[in-house]
Amino acid sequence: MAQFFKIHPDNPQKRLITQSVEILRNQGVIAYPTDSSYALGCLLDNKSALERISRIRGLDKNHLFTIICADLTGLGLLARLDNSVFRLIKSYIPGPYTFILKASKEVPRRIQNNKRSTIGLRVPDNTICKMLLEAIGEPILSTSLILPGDDLPLFDPDEIDEKIGNQIDLIIDGGMIGVETTTVIDMTGNEPIIIRTGKGVV
After folding, report:
1. CATH number for the domain that contains residue 9
2. Residue 43: which H helix or E strand, with range?
3. Which of 128, 141, 75 is nearest to 104 (CA)?
4. If DSSP codes are grouped into helix, strand and coil, which group holds residue 65?
5. Within a domain: residue 112?
6. Residue 137, in any domain of the structure
7. SS3 state at 18
8. Which one, of 141, 151, 140, lies nearest residue 181 by Cα?
9. What is the pLDDT of residues 1-41, one digit of tens each?
10. What is the distance of C-alpha 36 from the center of its chain?
11. Are 12 and 131 in contact (CB under 8 A)?
12. Does residue 200 lie in a domain region?
């Protein structure tokens, strides 16, 4: 069964953040809050955890996961950014936006778009999420917590525990949050293209 940490959304307990990091580093899969919805996450190099998340969500091998970063420095290490793209992204983060970008050599091939060598990157505006990323010092591979047959993410931590608590290692209860998706912006062409309108205003 998953451990269940009730973490204050505005003043997260450092002890619980530290324990959450330990679970991630120990090959763990976690359910955690972002600024748009609850998500499932693991570390980038954790192939077995990625497979667990895919089974929980009923995803095929072509599903594109999002990489969650603490700041623009993290984005710059994982994606190829020119100055104009850098400035545009800087004006939107942190926030509920996912940016499709060309992957750098630091990104494992298995989490890139096979045909385009792209990835989805974002910097959420959620205090728990930000503290988690700062404490672990590396990105988190993530996907919205939408179960097979559902149209929207789970938003109640107790329901998350009831439905998948026996399949993951940690549930971070950051309170009730939304069920909106992020706004997705493709930054790989000459001009940005909005490919999904979500919570983020553009």
Report:
1. 3.90.870.10
2. strand 38-43
3. 75
4. coil
5. yes
6. yes
7. helix
8. 151
9. 899 999 999 999 999 999 999 999 999 999 999 999 999 99
10. 10
11. yes
12. no
